[in-house]
Every structure is written in C-alpha cells, then in structure tokens.
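pinging the channel bc i need a second pair of eyes. not urgent but kinda urgent?? the chain im working w is below, pasted from the shared doc
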Amino acid sequence: MNVASATGLAGAAVYTAQEERGLTSRFLGPSGVFVEVGAYDPVFQSQTLHLELTGWRGLLVEPVPEFAENLRRARQAQVVQCACVAPEAATAGRVALLERRGSSTIVFNPRKVRPEDMVIEVPAATLDSVLEGAGVSTIDFLSVDVEGAEPDVLKGVTLSRFQPKLVVVDDRERFGETCAVLRSGNYHLVRRTGHNAWFVPQDTARHLSLRARAQLMWTYGPGRLLRRRMRIGNARMA
C-alpha cells in the first residue's frame, strides 16, 4: 500500500470542490498515470490537468469529436475519441450520443429525445478495450464523469487488473449503482469533494477514521435526502 495514500486519508471526509486538487495531489504523490473518462475540456473542470503539469502521463477519453480534437490540440496526454460503455452495449461498436445544452449523454431512451436536441453516432467500447488499445497497463488515478453513465463505464473495466490507487466518480446520478459496481471490485467510499466521490482499494480504506466514516454516513444518507428535497423546492420556486 502507498504510504502517501494512507496518510492522505487523515482528517475529514467531506470537502469542497475547490479543495479537491490539493487533496488528490497529496493522496497520489508526485508522479503516476491518470485516466480521465469524460474529459470534455482541456482546462475547464479538468480532473487531470494539474497532474499533467507536474509530469504525470495519462489518457483522456472523450466521445464528442469536437471536444476530443480540442483536447488533442491543448493537452500532452493521449486522447481517444470514444464512448465507454458496459460490455453488453459494446458489441455494436457504436452508440447514439445526445448533446443538449453543453452536456452529452448516451441515448438510453429514444422517446426522451426532443426536437431541438442533436444526436450523433460515436464509437463505443469498454474501458478495458480502450486501455488495451492505448497501451495502458496500470492506473494510479481514474476519473469518471459521464453524465449519469458512470456505472456502465465501471462495469467495463477490470479493476483487479489495472489496480488504480484512486477512483473519483461524479456522484449526482445512479450513485447506488456506482457504489455496487465498485464494491464488487473491492473499492470503498472514503471521501467526497464537491460532487465527486472517492473510492480506494479495501486495504487503503481501512485507514479511514471513525469521524470520517460518520461524515460519509450523514452525507450519503440523511444529507443526500435533504439536498434532493432542497433541489426540488428550488426548482418549484424558479
């Protein structure tokens, strides 16, 4: 187990998004390999730019052709233009992608597509296949932010094979499914930064303090229900 990883879990379990970069750098150490699925923009809300600037190597995965090209022009990391999907969805080799108001999601239900929406067809594969094609054999940091398809991406990667030290996942949609997939790979929830949930291997997670465990129980239990009710109330008032 990485000593930096163990000491990096000291203290609280819930932080703001603004504190995230410093926390990830402290947890991961000075060098390594990152993979960012749903990279979107070279700079804006990037989960990995700060690591690349300190010498990390990595892979950026982005399904939208225009965004992938922007990443190639601005970043040093290898870029793959592809949608990462669950194994059962990868057999077709392509998926329909819905673009709406600056975000992109895989079309699971065609009836929800509006006349003003743009739908494009993009290459699709499991993350295992993408990593193999890119020559990635080990991962230190895996980031997944794909507008609700996080569980599908994670179903397509063999965690025991690539053994990431840290997996960070957007927690706003299908979070119960995300937790179940990661638990099946012996990865456990240890921290929240902004809207991102941190998962680490079981051996690292055991260093989490009782205080941190209590914070997580509140944040993803009663606290999550309270946040949902507040969002519904704000939407009704808007």
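so The chain has a mean pLDDT of 88. and Residues 96 and 107 are 6 Å apart (CA to CA). — does that match what u expected or am i reading it wrong
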